[in-house]
Amino acid sequence: MNHFKYLWISARRVVIGCLTIIYSIAYAEDSWKVETVALPAGLPPEVGAVKFDSEGMLYVALRRGDVLMAKPVADAQKFHWKHFASGFHNACGMEVVKPGHLIISQMPELTEVKDTDGDGTADSYRTMTDAWGVSGNYHETNEICPDGHGGYYIAVGTASYNGPTFHHVRGKYSKIGRRGRNFSGVEWKGWVMHYSKDGKVTPFASGFRMHNGIMRDSKGNIWCGDNQGDWRATTPLYHVRKGNFHGHPSSLIWDPDWPEGKDPLKMSLKEIDAMRTRPAVLIPHKEMNRSASEPIEIPTGFGPFAGQILIPDNNGNRITRVMLDKVNGEYQGSCTHFINGKGLLSGGNRVVFSADGKTLYTGHTVRGWGKPAEGVQRITWSGKTPFDVQNIALEKVGFTLKLTKELSDLATTACSVRSFRYESKWSYGGPMLDQRDEKVTLLLANADTLKIDVQKLEPLRVYQITLDGLSSREGELLVNKVYYYTLNELKKS
């Protein structure tokens, strides 16, 4: 039986407990250790992909064409790196079939790479598909994830107006698709493509800007982040399903059902909004994540957040934690910091967990959008559970927050809720709009749960929940104070 305490409510701010007894409170010791892994000297350490094989070998693809491999050791400065393969054009995706057998997505193609004679060096390179165009623009990166049936999903990025295209491109060219800030001048830019086990390539979903990362979770769902910019007011996370359009119009020019000669950039915002699939989670750009890269599901063995999603920031030294919430059959959810600073490099680009699930390896490259911060790092769980919000679930009139530890009987907190919305359109990024403080009408607490009722919840808004001063029985303060919930739909019965 749950025993909730009724707590005093103010107009917009809620205060829990009393302040008659003063005692020391400290933040929990760091639950995760961040280390930088040394790479060979003199090698540009711009990481495009990281993966493990079944024998614990770590493979690292570098943007300038090489693939290295090493078995992790206790001392992060003493990895024994070997050269495995070379010759790739901006390799940004990698999957391991088995030791010595890789699938790599590079700018022009999907490539099968094998070490056929067992000498530790690849000697077989086979083009699996090159079914998309190449314009020569630097921005057209590709990433992959398995489909669970022997095939792959391929995230094919758009081009950027900051870079030119070649006079002669590979594949079909569209003058209409070439228009815009981020554009789709050649085939399938801004799409997720599907490569089946038998080698057939088909379009799967459209409307992406720069979905620099794609994953299939343990339930079979496909997830893509994207980059704030044109048609992206802030950083989104999408639940990707076949046939859906995700809001960036340039890719529509390659839809087989798109009317010939029609310019998607001339559609009204109302038309685009009616067509598009909304992000499951909107991640505030400055506050949480400027440039979402590869999402990854947290396994057991890495603390109290198993099943949730981590997303590195390619333009910041932080990783976002996403807590999904299925409401009326559709995913929406919340986000907060997983790691913010603490020795983490910026340029977070690729991530992979060790086989035991206790260590996350991160690959970094900045690509000129900030100070140099390339390389490989690893984040290891210490076994100490942090005091944080473990999950947030929408209720009919508010939110339930599950904590990782029990609250102190003398816990004191101030709770506030504010909300805002975003509008994605042709301009680059966008501010928080229609910001307002929300009236909290009820706050209940039991051992490890907070229930927050809000006077008026509305769909298509982001709710910021701020908790200040909350402490655990061990005297720890919350690791994070601020959480953002994307409310696409109100909860029905």
General description of the model:
This protein is mainly β and 493 residues long. It has 2 domains: 5-29 and 394-487, Immunoglobulin-like; 37-381, TolB, C-terminal domain (Neuraminidase, 6 Propeller). Helix content is 1%, strand content 40%. Strands 2, 23, 24, 25, 26, 32, 33, 36 and 38 form a 9-stranded antiparallel sheet that branches. A hairpin with a 5-residue loop joins β24 and β25. The chain is globular and about 65 Å long. The model is unreliable at 8-13 and 15-28 (pLDDT under 50).
The first-level CATH class of the largest domain is given as Mainly Beta
Major sheet: size, sense and barrel closure? 9 strands, antiparallel
CATH superfamily of the largest domain: TolB, C-terminal domain
Ranges where pLDDT stays below 50 over 5 or more residues in a row are: 8-13, 15-28
CATH architecture of the largest domain: 6 Propeller
Strand-pairing-aware structural class: mainly beta
Average pLDDT level? 92
Number of strands: 38
Radius of gyration: 23 Å
First-to-last CA distance: 23 Å
